[in-house]
Amino acid sequence: MRELALKAGVSTATPYNLISTKANLLTLVLEQEFREFRGEMAPLAKLGGLERLLNTIDLLCSHYASDQKFYFGLFKSAGTIDESSMALVMLEGGRALFGDMVRAAIAEEDEGGGFAAALVTGVLLRTMRATVEAWYVSGWSVARFHDEMAFAVRVVMMANYRGPVAESLRRELTVLQERLEKHASAEPFAGALASG
User: N or C terminus of the chain: which is more exposed, having fewer CB within 10 Å?
Assistant: First the structure.
C-alpha cells in the first residue's frame, strides 16, 4: 500500500482510507481484470460452444503473456494475503466467465456423453489455475505455457465427448504432446519440474 501511495503521489494513509486492505485492493484489481477480459472476449461470442471455449483459453494465455510481470506480481500478491478470499474471487469470476461456455460446449455432444457442466467447470478452473501456477514457478516459455494450457484443457474437455469431436481432440492432443516433448527437451529445468 505504501508503494501504491508513493506512485499515486498521495499520503500513505490515503489508500488505506479508500481501500482499507491489500486484499480489498487485489479484489478490485481482479474484478477489473475480469471486466476487461470479457471485453476482449466479445469477438468470440459468434463461435460455437467448444470452439469458443478453446479460443477463449488461447486468448486468456495471450492476455497473461502480454504483461507477464504484472500477472506474476498479481499471482504472487494474491498468494501472500488471505488466500481463501482471493481464491473465492477468482473462482466466482472464473465460474461466471467459463460456466456458460462449458455448458454450451458439453451440449454440442450428440451422443449425450457429457458430465454435469458445473462439475466440469470446477475441474477446468482448477486445472487452469494449476497450469498458470506451474508457468509462474517453472519459468516456462510463453509458447510452452500456451501448449501446456491447450493440452490440459483438451484433456479435461475430451471426457465429455464421443465420436468425431473426441477424435478431433485426440488428434490435437497428439500434436500438442509432440510440441510439449520438444519444449521439455529445450527447457530441461522446467521439463524436469513438469514431468517429475
Answer: C
DSSP state of 115: -
Please tell me the pTM assigned to this model.
Answer: 0.82
Integer angstrom CA distances of residue 91 from 17, 23, 31, 58, 63: 27, 15, 12, 19, 18
Question: Domains of the chain: which residue ranges?
Answer: 48-195
Contact 49, 106 (CB under 8 A): yes
Which among 61, 12, 68, 15 is positioned nearest to 37, based on CA atoms? 61
pLDDT tens over the chain, length 196 residues: 666 556 556 677 776 777 777 777 777 778 888 888 999 999 999 998 999 999 999 999 999 999 888 888 877 776 655 566 677 777 888 898 899 999 999 988 766 667 899 999 999 999 998 899 889 888 899 999 999 999 999 999 999 998 888 999 999 999 999 999 999 888 766 544 444 4
- What is the full DSSP assignment across 50-86? HHHHHHHHHHHHHHHHHTHHHHHHHHHHHHHS-HHHH
| DSSP structural state of residue 43 | G
